[in-house]
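Expect sequence, tokenised fold; for instance:
***
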Amino acid sequence: MTTIARGTDTLTRDALTVLQPGFTGTTAPDWLLRRLGEGLASVGLFGRNIVSPEQLSALTAQLRAERPDVLVAIDEEGGDVTRLEARTGSSFPGNHALGAVDDLELTHAVARELGRRLAACGVHLNWAPSADVNSNPDNPVIGVRSFGADTALVARHTAAYVTGLQSAGVAACTKHFPGHGDTAVDSHHALPRIDVPADVLHARELAPFRAALAAGTRAVMSAHILVPALDPDRPATLSRPVLTDLLRGELGYQGLIVTDGMEMRAVSGTYGIEHGSVLAVAAGADAICVGGGLADDETVRRLRDALVAAVRSGELPEERLADAARRVRELAAWTANGTTGDTAPDPEAGLRAARRALTVTGGESFTPLTEAPYVAAFTPVANIAVGDETPWGVAAELSALLPGTRTGSFTGDSAGSDALAAAGERRVVAVVRDEHRHPWMAKALSTLLEARPDTVVVEMGVPQAPPRGRLHLATHGAARVCGRAAAEVVAGV
């Protein structure tokens, strides 16, 4: 039965309330402040919005001056995906490193410290953790963002992360439901498809989400993936069988459901962001994440108007939109009333985790370097979630320990010979990232090792390839602290 909208103002406010837009700049633009006054309840932050903790605190204070209960969200996984430290690299090693250590107290401590830093800057919704089981080693977008390939391990660390983050007063948003780990396609570019039976999905993909729900996660983010065993027609973000029947009904979840970025081609390329947003809310999503790429007032207006028009036409029940807006306001109220006064700082949590995550092969016969080496970084194309603005590797950290260290970045068929030529007589430290996924990288490393067998190899992705080199270090992530932990071993600190 079609529900007739009873009040344009209420309807418009509800349409604005379910949006989580981004913006450009390090201060809030006038249009964003105006939309907060009109009903917008959430704002998403990205690396482009952040320069320092002090600036971020001033920005969130500016937003709250306009709307005290505004829900300020961020995509801060730590590790490779960082917005707080996009310009320097993260102080936290990321999920894969935490899974490699497999110490639940450590995972809880890292998440709590990350949450403390977010809360101190006025951010109270984090689009993390990733609960994806990295069952496909060729996955181009999850990788070290996952705690690992073992379902039970991912489940217990997802729960520990959720409780740690939320103990600091920051709402966790567990992602990417129903699980993005068994994909070979990046949903930023196209629509991934997971063709496994329903019983496999329930035993593998869904187990970490059940653990997160049991731990009290305040939000869940949907994935732009097609799972025919659940819905053969629409990706999970737009699927009522996935979001309402499975997540709400079968799993009993009553918190906020947030979409992944609606600009991502897996949705926008087929449905467009306006129609896609209407379908997402109709399917059971409560908050529409947009702003990673489209970050302007026109985007907010288009989505608002699309939702209002869908209610008026009967495509979207008014009750569904009102229910979605209510869930957003409830989470905003929880974050506004939260306290972080009892959260003691633990500034070394991330480095402590990175050091423990390091896997060393060949260390028993390795003599630490005393002279400045040449760091050859074999650099793959960064996925959009990670971005290419965040530095990675070991060069900066080795330079601090061995002044005079030089570095270069290499890619393609000639990467190995180019690195050799650039290194000259210096000892070589080769840095790779997911060697197993990049044939050119494996070839370059072989070229280097054949000519210089004393090369030190640092793998900063998922360590699937066999260890090679005089010393092989697997960091399980490319965060700044991962580079620091590796550099300490290379320099014998």
